[in-house]
Every structure is written in structure tokens, then in C-alpha cells.
Amino acid sequence: IGFLIATAQTKEDKMSIIGPPDKKLMQEINNAWATLNPVNAAKYYDKSAENVFYDFSLFEYRGLKSYLEGATETFKTLKSMKYTVSHDAAIQIEGITAWGTATLHMEIIDNKQIMSSMDLRWTVIWKKNGSNWLIVHEHLSVPVTSTD
Question: Is the pLDDT of residue 1 over 90?
């Protein structure tokens, strides 16, 4: 059983992401998340309820709506956040599908003014819809460090 969700498009939603994904786009997506307003990142994502997004703060989000709601709750605990896409960013394109991988460096300051940073792994899959490349799957993870 499939679900079809119709959503009204705003002018920002219609903004085209033309051309194949590249490292610049990867940084742009992370800059949008770093505003701590998930709505700013929404234009980069496919709105299908079937899409799955894995984040380090919660195991799984199904659909963009759930992802944005979860991020909104998480961001309530933060004062600022910054992501830097590392030099190892790589993208491969095959027809209407593209996938990218990168390590990210994240710096956050929480509401208690405590600063922390971590390195993340990021895998992202885009699907071309017309002239737009939209994210249909994303996976963020934190590497397990050795205790040796």
C-alpha cells in the first residue's frame, strides 16, 4: 500500500537545483541545516513519505515531514551549529540518480554555552526530478572510536 501526500509548493520549494550535485551543493545543504531552521533545508529534499533518513540523533525518520519535526526538536537545545564538508567529498552520477559521500566536521554550541565538535560520515542519494536534484535518502553517522 502506497501513500500519496500532496503538499502546496512555495516559491522557495520551486527553486531549481539545476545541474548535477557537487561539493558546493553539499556544503550549501549543510549550511541550510546549520541555520537551525529545518525549513531552510527542506528545498533540497524530496517530499515523499516513503523516503528514509538516518541521523545520528535519532535512529530513523520516515519522510521529510518526520525528519524536519525531529530536527526542530533537536535544534531547540542548540545555540549554533556549523558543518564543514571535508576535502574527501565525492559524487557519482548514473542517469537520474546521484550519490555522494563525505566526512563532515560539526561544531555546536548548546544552550548552556558548551561548545563541542565531532566528525561525521555522510552519505546522500539524489534523484533527478525534471531539472531538480532532490535528496531521497541520507545517512549521517558518528564513527566509533577505538578504546585501545
Answer: no
Instruction: Give the SS3 label for residue 71.
Output: helix
Q: Tell me: the pLDDT tens digits for 21-65?
A: 999 999 999 999 999 999 999 999 999 999 999 987 767 889 999
Opening angle at CA 22, ends 98 and 29, nearest 5: 95
Q: Which residues pair with 93 in a beta bridge?
A: 98
DSSP letter assigned to residue 8 = P
Cα-based angle 97, 20, 65 (whole degrees, multiple of 5): 65
- Measure the CA–CA gap between 123 and 138, rounded to whole angstroms: 6
Q: What is the CA radius of gyration of the chain?
A: 16
pLDDT at residue 3 in the model: 31
Which of 75, 82, 66, 62 minimizes the C-alpha distance to 110? Answer: 75
Contact 97, 68 (CB under 8 A): no
In contact, 43 and 14? CB cutoff 8 Å: no
